[in-house]
Amino acid sequence: MRRNTLAILAACAAVTICGQAQAQQPAAAPAAPAAVPDQMPFDIPYGNSITADRAADVVKAIVAEATKSPRNWKFAISVVDTHGELVYFYKMDNTQYGSVTISQNKARTAARLRRPTQIFNNAMQTPAGAYVATLDSPPPTASPGGIPLVEGGKIIGAVGCSGATGDQDAVACKAGADTVK
Question: CA-to-CA distance for 117 and 113, rounded, in angstroms?
Fold first, then answer.
């Protein structure tokens, strides 16, 4: 019994000494702060808002992309002005009902925050991306498929597509956004 007691005391002493030795290690140097860029990202000026006729052309390009064979993607498509207000809306037959509001929110987010909604989706995939939900009320829609419409270096509105997968939404929306130069 005496040997067991001595063995236990020796083990406790070893753990205590090792723990103190580790505690006395110098602290790791703090990580250097991220460099602050000199230029503001996404600093695209706003121009005159898109017209309903131009918005209809954007939608036509999206529908053409969505119905290319063998595709049968079904979308709710929203085009907004520079303020994020609805200019044109089109819902393809048999599109899920939830996509109506989602497409409008994607377009609104892209116009008001001057960047594709994919950027917010990417940020939300990281621990640091939790801030995205605090940016606005309602918060930005962090899902692919919202793209600013840029003409002559100025934002004239944005388009939002919803109804398929996020990647499919983004591909179709880009086809529409590419008609604006």
Answer: 9
DSSP H or E stretch at residue 143: none
- Tokens (6 digits) for 119: 């950027």
Q: What is the DSSP letter of 101?
A: H
Structure tokens at 62: 């999206």
128 confidence band (pLDDT: 50, 70, 90): confident
Q: State pLDDT tens for residues 32-67.
A: 777 888 888 888 999 999 999 999 999 999 999 999
Burial of 68 (0-12, 13-18, 19+ CB in 10 A): exposed
3-state DSSP helix/strand/coil % of the chain, to nearest 5:
45, 15, 40
Residues found in the chain: 181
pTM for this entry: 0.79
Nearest C-alpha neighbor of 148 from the set 105, 177, 119: 177
pLDDT of residue 34: 78
Q: In Å, how far are 132, 154, 164 from 180, measured between CA atoms?
A: 28, 11, 23
CA distance 158 to 116: 9
